[in-house]
Amino acid sequence: MEPTNKIALITGGSRGLGKNAALKLAQKGNDVIITYRSKKEEADDVVKEIEAQGLKAAALQLDTSKVATFADFKDQLTTTLQQKWNRNNFDFLINNAGIDAASPFAQTTEEDFDNLFNVHFKGVYFLTQTLLTTIADGGRIINLSTGLTRFATPGYAAYASMKGAIEVFTKYLAKELGNRGIAANLVAPGIIETDFTKKAFDSHPQMHDFISSITSLGRPGQPDDIGGIIAFLCSDDARWINAQRIEASGGMFL
Questions:
Q1: Most-buried pick from 72, 87, 172, 212 (CB within 10 A)?
Q2: Strand 31-36 and strand 7-10: pairing?
Q3: pTM of the model
Q4: Are 58 and 84 in contact (CB under 8 A)?
Q5: Segments in 86-242 forming alpha helices (H)
Q6: What domain range includes position 159?
Q7: Is the separation of the CB atoms in 158 and 112 below 8 Å?
Q8: Residue-level pLDDT at 3
């Protein structure tokens, strides 16, 4: 009997870093399930691109800020796994979905704070909890953090604080899930040129040059700089990496 492909689930996989990670994982021979919040056409395009490589893929709608929907999402996921893969579990959970809301600490609104909290910490915490019994033993959990937990850039106090919580959370995942052979790690990108950061780059024309000047490799990051790292952490070559924060920033603020 031929071995079956591993299956990765990537939240927010229809664009940006999530899309890049999905394509890189597929290039390594993994099947992929992505979630999208509202852009179904973009998600379907990613699925078609993966299927064109001879692999299986699926897209499911999910708003990672709404914990009350997670049980229903798990049911949809389980149905998809059974119908498309004849499995009741998957191998790699990549908690990638995110939003941006930069503001100076003194002007941060409670609404902005809550939105960031719900997506970047509460949603990650409880989605991972909800899917624990659906992640295969020996699987991997990859959480996304940010270079902003190492260096401070005014305007990101709330966002970086949520990611700091994720960094602590990931250590606990590694500790508590080790008996199932599940490794949990963090990837912390520096500033990447995606639609996530487009507003910041567009509103600050000097930002590109500034980022280049404080980055050892002399440029802002691109999605292609990150997806391969996520794919590597899901590979057998990375099986002994656990509870680690891997910053991929090109050497910012060294």
A1: 87
A2: parallel
A3: 0.95
A4: yes
A5: 110-117, 123-131, 157-177, 198-203, 207-213, 224-233
A6: 7-248
A7: yes
A8: 56
Query: Tens of pLDDT along 36-86?
Result: 999 999 999 999 999 999 999 999 999 999 999 999 999 999 999 999 999
Indicate if the pLDDT at residue 14 is higher than 90: yes
Tens-place pLDDT, residues 136-165: 999 999 999 999 999 999 999 999 999 999
Q: pLDDT at position 197, please?
A: 75
DSSP string computed for 53-81: TT--EEEEE--TT-GGGHHHHHHHHHHHH
**253 occurs within a structural domain:** no
Looking only at the bridges linking them, the beta strands covering 57-61 and 31-36 are parallel
CATH code, 85: 3.40.50.720
Element (H, E) at 184: strand 183-189
Q: By C-alpha distance, which of 203, 206, 218 is closest to 252?
A: 218
Looking at residue 180, its pLDDT comes to 98
Sheet holding 7-10, edge to edge: 57-61, 31-36, 7-10, 90-95, 135-144, 183-189, 245-248
Q: How far is CA 140 from CA 6, 136, 223, in A?
A: 11, 9, 21
User: Could you tell me what percent of the chain has a pLDDT over 90?
Assistant: 90
The count of structural domains within the chain is: 1
| Catalytic residue positions, numbered | 159
